[in-house]
Amino acid sequence: MRVLITAGPTYEPLDPVRFIGNHSTGKMGYALAEAFAAEGAVVTLVSGPTNLPNPTDPRITTVRVQTAAEMFAAATAVASAANVWVFAAAVADYRPAEVATQKIKKSGNTLTLELVKNVDIAFELGKTKRAEQFSVGFALETENEQAHALGKLERKNFDLVVLNSLRNAGAGFRHDTNQVTLLEPEGRVTAFGLKPKTEVARDIVAAVLARLTLRHA
Ligand code: CTP
Ligand code: CA
């Protein structure tokens, strides 16, 4: 098994000292890398900027990137050779239209930034997915959770989508715990309780392995 995982946030530069980013810590993606490696998989972890050290498991290769464009390039380089893709990164949907070469100076009372859409890594790779490949996406929703998550599953050609519940105070960004529901194309819904991200990762890996085994049965 060869696994591609995207993890962490992306930083989209505004000028030499500023960027647009988000609060993703990368913990979920890193935990998934460890969990897949523990099952014997060879893992490429494409990580945005995080405070986490590179995993030390020799089966995991960590590729560090900053922007969505860099993450897309790094993921594309290994996607074809991987049979499992996991898109755990919180990719910035937009980036500043222009990156100033010098530090932007303070001037008027308001400042308007123009943003342009970033590449959707999961969507673009989803178009290239072969029958034997298995793609896992994440969705974080605040309303119509399951319907929105299933929309992403279809659009991005996922075989499994991990819906992050924000209803629980201990789940999501900046927490060591997470509460997820797994959604699959055939309508199967599997809800898990609040647990450490390391255990959530093991649940996700177990689900992927079970689906791959079924395929080969
Ligand atoms: N994703 C990605 N590249 C992007 C945006 C999202 O690969 N530019 C992936 C995420 O890693 C995740 C899935 O797509 O696995 C869903 O991300 P999400 O932000 O929930 O979906 P969006 O399509 O960006 O929709 P929105 O933010 O409007 O809900
Ligand atoms: Ca998004």
Give a concise summary.
This protein has a single domain (2-95, 114-215), classed as Rossmann fold (3-Layer(aba) Sandwich).
Can you describe what's shown?
The protein is an alpha/beta fold and 217 residues long. It has one domain (2-95, 114-215): Rossmann fold (3-Layer(aba) Sandwich), CATH 3.40.50. Helix content is 28%, strand content 26%. It contains five helices and 14 strands. The strands form four sheets. It has an eight-stranded mixed beta sheet with strand order 5-4-1-6-9-10-12-13, with helices on both faces. A hairpin with a 2-residue loop joins β2 and β3 (18-20). α1 (27-38) packs across α5. The radius of gyration is 18 Å and the shape is globular. The model has no long low-confidence stretch (mean pLDDT 95). The chain binds cytidine-5'-triphosphate and calcium ion. Residues 6, 68, 87, 89, 91, 93, 118, 120-122, 137-140, 152, 156 line the site of cytidine-5'-triphosphate (CTP). Cytidine-5'-triphosphate binds next to α3 and β9. GO terms for molecular function: catalytic activity.
